[in-house]
Amino acid sequence: MHARLAGKVALVAAASKGLGRAIAEAFADEGATLAICARGEGALAQTSEAIAGRTGATVHAVAADVARTDGIARIAGSTLERFGRVDVLVTNAGGPPVGLFDAHDWGAWQRAVELTLRSAVELTRAVLPGMRQRMWGRVIHVTSLAVKQPIDGLMLSTSIRAAVTGFSRTLANEVAADRVTVNTVLPGFMNTERVAELNQATAAREQVAVEVVEKRVIGRIPMRRLGEPGELAQLVVFLASDQASYITGQSIAVDGGWIQSLM
């Protein structure tokens, strides 16, 4: 344990599996006290027990759906009640449904806004005043490489995560003088259930075997492999640490070189 986050309280959303769990585990390894949430109570309890058992970290687990205002209030309120503060916030949520434009009515768009944008905005709203008062804080939003390089079939995710990026970049300027940093991390094609879902949806749309899609995806990644959740988590740990105190307003990809733009 390097203990870069010793004495810090970190709240990680959607942390029962995938990227959220990897981030929570990495925070625990660095000495943080954890608050985690997810919709599934059973999976969340297993994750909480596993992290606490392996690292000895204090883990506050709350079943909550961050697409709902009561879910946001539940995890934020109970964390502040138990620990008195949140030093590091990681907003994260399962991706909106895949599909082309014609597949999504306005109801789908509204649900995507609530899941992806409102959860980021309202979780930030709940913990930011304390960060500003203490003159120290880290807000990190997990978005997607699609905000820099759109991917067919990810209409909802690309659009709404781009809005999170705009929110994050603008907020970074507002709170920088209070020594609160705000950044986004852009996972690429990672070894997660979400990527498997995307590949299956693409295969169904194109009427090809999923293995064909998987091979094509990996062939487009310069590193010729999927990323591991723990690789993204290490970036998040760094951004949450004192060592990253002069990094704010940034969108940093962990994508094996997928994004082809210069900036």
Task: Write a compact overview of the structure shown.
The protein is α/β, with parallel strands linked by helices. The protein is built from eight helices and seven strands; from the N terminus they run E-H-E-H-E-H-E-H-E-H-E-H-H-H-E.
Notes on the structure:
The chain is an alpha/beta fold. 49% of the residues lie in helices and 14% in strands. It is built from 8 helices and 7 strands, in the order βαβαβαβαβαβαααβ. It has helices at residues 18-29, 41-55, 69-83, 106-134, 155-175, 193-206, 210-220, 229-240; strands at residues 9-12, 33-38, 59-63, 88-91, 137-142, 180-187, 251-254. The protein has a 7-stranded parallel beta sheet with strand order 3-2-1-4-5-6-7, sandwiched between helices. α5 links the parallel β5 (137-142) and β6. The protein is globular and about 55 Å long.
Summarize the main sheet: 7 strands, parallel
Please give the oligomerization state of what you see: single chain
- Low-pLDDT ranges: none
Can you list the strand order of the major beta sheet?
A: 3-2-1-4-5-6-7
Global mean pLDDT: 95
Rg, please?
18 Å
User: Roughly how many Å apart are the termini?
Assistant: 34 Å
What attributes characterize this protein structure?
about 260 residues; about 15% strand; globular; alpha/beta; 7-stranded parallel beta sheet
Please render the helix and strand layout as text.
Blueprint: E1 9-12, H1 18-29, E2 33-38, H2 41-55, E3 59-63, H3 69-83, E4 88-91, H4 106-134, E5 137-142, H5 155-175, E6 180-187, H6 193-206, H7 210-220, H8 229-240, E7 251-254
Parallel strand pairs: 1-2, 1-4, 2-3, 4-5, 5-6, 6-7
